Amino acid sequence: METTQAIAALSALAQETRLDVFRHLMQQLPGGVPAGDLADAFGVPASTMSTHLAILTRAGLTRSERDGRTIYYAAELGGIRGLLEFLVKDCCNGRSAACNKLLKAALSPCCG
Asked: pTM above the 0.90 mark?
């Protein structure tokens, strides 16, 4: 992950609703959640939720899939893994062995 991508991801998560939505989508993996259900669950207008989801998607933290008229959103594991790897890659002055446990947990396959 490049620095600009990391900044975009961190910026996307630096807003309360987006952070809550992202965490909710992580809980729902490997499945996705309809955009309308997210708007209802978080008590925001559909247009506002659409904006939040667009920001998360541009940052590489979510992905969408259309099924008829419904758009389902899911957390993008590659995006969050890339961000975590970026944050710790220079750990301990480049000797990242001290962070191997963290990296292994972040980069190992999970449900998706």
From this structure: no
